[in-house]
Structure formats: structure tokens, C-alpha cells
Specification:
alpha+beta; D-Maltodextrin-Binding Protein, domain 2; 2 domains; 4-stranded mixed sheet; 11 strands; globular; disordered N terminus; ABC transporter substrate-binding protein; periplasm; SBP; signal; transport
Length: about 425
């Protein structure tokens, strides 16, 4: 590269330094909702700053299909994607294929602790936290006021209030009204729901931090018994095939008093075409009892750099830029994406743009992670056994205690083959 070209390029802000050459970095971004648009804006800003270019790689919206694609690419050592957007339960599954970011992750302790924990695998930082999710309770403010009921603090209170409101609304002619909707299909979403019920009732987290299977205990059985009791009473039997969108559809149509869902549903519930606009409140999910705890399952996404990237330094710079404080703040303001950097929950501009984000700091700080780190590549097997067992209990095909005994046996069999 000639000195004249280098001078002109630097003046135009196209190259970082003399002798550097622009590269193209491929980045996988979800296209759900506003994700693609907000991701592209951040990538374009980095490209303008560095002189490089970013190609957004289209990946399946289904998390299951996206993981399968990632596994196929990484197992082949393909460099098609430089920076991967990954779910919080994937570092243990895919981490061996990602670059160690420990040297660049000096500020990792500023992030939500649970997100920092999942970013580490085998003592290495294999991904950087990008945005956070946790299960939340959505409720109809107008109906709680109408029936003179407080926001429920325990599952028992939620059950009672859901019944009271459901009966009252049906007497008023709304025959398809329900008390509580959630995600009951046999899939990963049921794992997140059931983990919340069990953890909130001091029943553990399926597998503990040291790799011990803990699911067979009375508190876990009691939590599943409570949830099974909702089906067909305050929850439609169809919930056994609900994902996030089916439950949101019922709630947003004005046909449920309560809903469990992720933060994304807030903006949609407040949309101009929503039947419940300005009638919705959010709160931590209820506790299992007076001695229980609020337990929203940790969700969210991280960015990881492929070991097989031909431009690993530039890819790392992009990942660090997109997960940095300035970009997380922009994403929170423009897209209502929940930051993973704790200090941003006190940022005045963020709370002005998205008032509900400021109230979620404690929810995210105390979120319950799924046991993906300790179970590693076998997490999908563990989760599948868990949600299938829970689904059997919810559909009245198995009693909680006996089902958990069988699950304990099956999980210990997986463990014998090695978590990693």
C-alpha cells in the first residue's frame, strides 16, 4: 500500500493504521423482532470506525435449528462465521470451538454475575455477554384493581387471584378468559418455566454447581404438583402445546389475567394494535412460599469468536465493541434490549426510553442459570429428559414424585458417561 493511499485512507477514517488492510467479518445475528436492525446498526458503526466491513449471516430463527447449524459448521472447522451470537446455554456445548477471550475480557466482572458465569468454560472466557433475559410475570393492572387484588408474591397467591379473576370475567360473559398462561410444550421453554417453579420452591436447579444431580426432592415434586394443578383450572389444557408466542397471543388479546414470558413481550403488549395497551404491569415471578425465592430463569445472548476465523483479531474487536458499554446503552435505548452491564440499569437515558428496564436489575442479578456449564455437551440431553418428564406430570400421565425418581436415574446415567 502506497504512503499516499495510506494517508488518504487514514484521513477518511477507513484504516486503523498504516500497513493495515480492511477485512470482511461475518457475524450471525438473530432476525427476530428488532434484533436484525439493531444488530446491523451496531455492526455498521464498528465498520465505519475501523474501515472493515461486516456481513450479517442469516441463521434460522429456531434456536434448535440454529444450534444444529452452528454445530455442523464448527465441527467441520469452517470459517463461514467469524462472530457467533449464542444462547446462554450454548457455551458449554460449543466452547471448545471458540477463541479464549480472557485477555480482552477485563471488565467481565461488571456484568450480571450469572451472565459472567456462563461466559466461562473450563477457566476460559469463551464468549462475552451481550444482552440479558429472564422470566417475568406479566399482569393486568386494570383487573387487579377491579377485583381489589395485589400483585401476587407467591404461587399460592397467584393461583387464588387467577381463579377469582377468571371466574369473575367468565360471569361477565368472557367464556374464553383464563387466569394464567405460560409455556408448556415439551421443549426448552418448558425447562425454563419448570426450573423457575422448582428453584422458587427451594427445589434446586436440576444439577448443582458441582455436577451432582439434585432433582429428586420433595420441594421439586411439590412445585410440579402445583403447576399440574393449574392445567384445566386456571390454565387452558392447550398450554401443553404453548410456546412463548401462543401464550402471548392469549394474553395480548385480553384473554388472560397473568402470563409468564420474557421481556420482549412488553413492547408488543404496549403496541398500538394491542388490546391491553397501558393495562399491563410486570413483576418478578412469584416465590414458592414465605421461605422461597423469586426465580426467573436466565436467558439472553452472548457473542463468541470462532477459532477458525481467518481474521480473529478483527473479529474479536467487533465482538468486544458490540458487547461494550456504549453499544449496550444504544441497544437498550433503541431496541429495549436488557443490558448485561449492571451500571447501565441506573442510566437516566435508558430508564427514560424504556422505564421497565430499570426495575429489572434485581431480576437479572438474581436470575437462575440452567445447568449448561457443568453438564457441557450433554446439556441438551439433560434438558430433554427434564422437559419430557415435566410434560408427563403436567399432562397427568405421571405423578411428580415417581416421575422425578425416574428422572434422577436417567440423569445419573447420562452423568456416568461424563458431563463433558
Amino acid at each position: 500500500m502506497s504512503r499516499m493511499f495510506a494517508t488518504l485512507a487514514a484521513a477518511a477514517g477507513l484504516l486503523v493504521s498504516t500497513g493495515a488492510s480492511a477485512v470482511e467479518i461475518s457475524l450471525s445475528c438473530s432476525a427476530l423482532g428488532k434484533e436484525y436492525e439493531v444488530c446491523k446498526q451496531g455492526a455498521d458503526a464498528w465498520a465505519k470506525k475501523t474501515g472493515n466491513t461486516v456481513k450479517i449471516v442469516s441463521t434460522p430463527n429456531s434456536a434448535t435449528e440454529r444450534l444444529a447449524l452452528y454445530q455442523q459448521l464448527l465441527a467441520a472447522g469452517a470459517g463461514d462465521i467469524d462472530v457467533f451470537q449464542i444462547d446462554v446455554v450454548w457455551p458449554g456445548i460449543l466452547g471448545e470451538h471458540f477463541k479464549d477471550l480472557t485477555a480482552q475480557a477485563k471488565g467481565l466482572d461488571q456484568h450480571i454475575p450469572a451472565m459472567s458465569d456462563v461466559a466461562r468454560v473450563g477457566g476460559k472466557v469463551v464468549a462475552m455477554p451481550w444482552f440479558a433475559d429472564a422470566g417475568l410475570l406479566y399482569y393486568r393492572k386494570d383487573l387487579l384493581e377491579k377485583y381489589n387484588r395485589p400483585v401476587p408474591k407467591t404461587w399460592a397467591e397467584l393461583t387464588e387471584t387467577a381463579r377469582i379473576i377468571q371466574e369473575g370475567e367468565r360471569k361477565a360473559g368472557k367464556n374464553d378468559f383464563w387466569g394464567y398462561v405460560w409455556q408448556g410444550r415439551a421443549y426448552e421453554g418448558l425447562t425454563t418455566n419448570a426450573l423457575e417453579w422448582i428453584a422458587s420452591n427451594n427445589g434446586g436447579t436440576i444439577v448443582n454447581d458441582t455436577g451432582e444431580v439434585t432433582i429428586e426432592n420433595p420441594n421439586a415434586a411439590e412445585a410440579l404438583k402445583t403447576a399440574a394443578g393449574w392445567v384445566g383450572t386456571v390454565t387452558p389444557e392447550g398450554v401443553l402445546n404453548y410456546t412463548e408466542e401462543e401464550s402471548r397471543g392469549v394474553f395480548q388479546a385480553g384473554n388472560a389475567a397473568f402470563m409468564r414470558n420474557w421481556p420482549y413481550a412488553w413492547a408488543l403488549a404496549q403496541g398500538a394494535d394491542s388490546a391491553i395497551k397501558d393495562k399491563v404491569g410486570i413483576a418478578p415471578l412469584p416465590m414458592g412460599g414465605a421461605d422461597g425465592r423469586h426465580a426467573g430463569t436466565l436467558g439472553g445472548q452472548l457473542l463468541a469468536v470462532s477459532k477458525y476465523s481467518k481474521n480473529a483479531d478483527a473479529a474479536t474487536d467487533l465482538a468486544m465493541y458490540l458487547t461494550g458499554q456504549e453499544e449496550q446503552k444504544r441497544r437498550a435505548i433503541e431496541g429495549s434490549f436488557n443490558p448485561t452491564i449492571l451500571s447501565l440499569y441506573e442510566d437516566a437515558e435508558i430508564t427514560k426510553a424504556s422505564p421497565f428496564i430499570g426495575s429489572l436489575r434485581d431480576v437479572f442479578a438474581n436470575a437462575v442459570p440452567r445447568p449448561s456449564g457443568v453438564t457441557g455437551e450433554n446439556y441438551n440431553k439433560v434438558s430433554t429428559e427434564f422437559f419430557n418428564t415435566v410434560h408427563q406430570v403436567l399432562s397427568k400421565r405421571a405423578e411428580p414424585a415417581q416421575a422425578l425418581t425416574r428422572l434422577d436415574r436417567d440423569l445419573k446415567r447420562i452423568k456416568r458417561d461424563g458431563w463433558k
